[in-house]
Amino acid sequence: MKIYIKNMVCRGTRLLIIQELERLGFSYNAIELGMIDFKKDLSLNELNELYQALNQYGLVVTFRDIRIVSEIRYLIHELVENKIQLWNDFSNYIIQKFGYNYSYLDEHFKLETGFSIENYYIENSNEREGRKENDNLILSSGTDMLNSFGNREAKKLRWEKTGKQILNVYKSFV
CA 20 to 30 Å from 22, out of 61, 67, 72, 149? Predict the structure, then answer.
């Protein structure tokens, strides 16, 4: 039986989980980041014990593989950043990359992110285009300043403007 652990991010967390499994008396075949493969199926009571033991450390027990969702997100970001458009064959591309039924992948992706895979791709593509337009706007306003001011003053004004925009974008992610 395999279960997946959300927020299992390092070796220290892995060691903590091993301690808890030994304390509870559960035997396992393997523990990888984000996954435990048990030697036998756990009963509902055992699953509840495991859930409570791990939940106190901020770890979430689930039965779906969230690593696939992370890999799909990474793939979409790569496609967007490299400007690769697969509008007509997008679902087949995802199927070939991951070897699962597209609706299965889409369902798990939506549970984790709130977006379907295609909507996530579209949102990221639109966001990228928005950044590109904003970069062009910054560049053209900087060029206008170069023409109307001296070089040093224009650089200072352009840095103040773009620096504030970069700071605002950073703050929106934090």
Answer: 67
Q: How far apart are CA 33 and CA 13, in angstroms?
A: 9
* Distance in angstroms (rounded) separating the CA atoms of residues 35 and 161: 46
- pLDDT tens string 41-56: 888 888 889 989 998 9
**Helix, strand and coil percent figures for the chain, each rounded to 5:** 70, 10, 20
pTM of the model: 0.45
Pure H helices in 61-150 = 66-81, 90-98, 102-113, 117-148
In this structure, what DSSP letter does residue 115 have? Answer: S
Residue 20 has pLDDT above 70, yes or no: yes
The domains found in the chain, sorted by start residue, are: 2-62 (3.30.70), 67-174 (no CATH)
Beta bridge mates, 119: none
Exposure on the CB side of residue 29, measured as CA atoms within 13 A = 9
Residue 17: CB atoms within 10 Å: 20
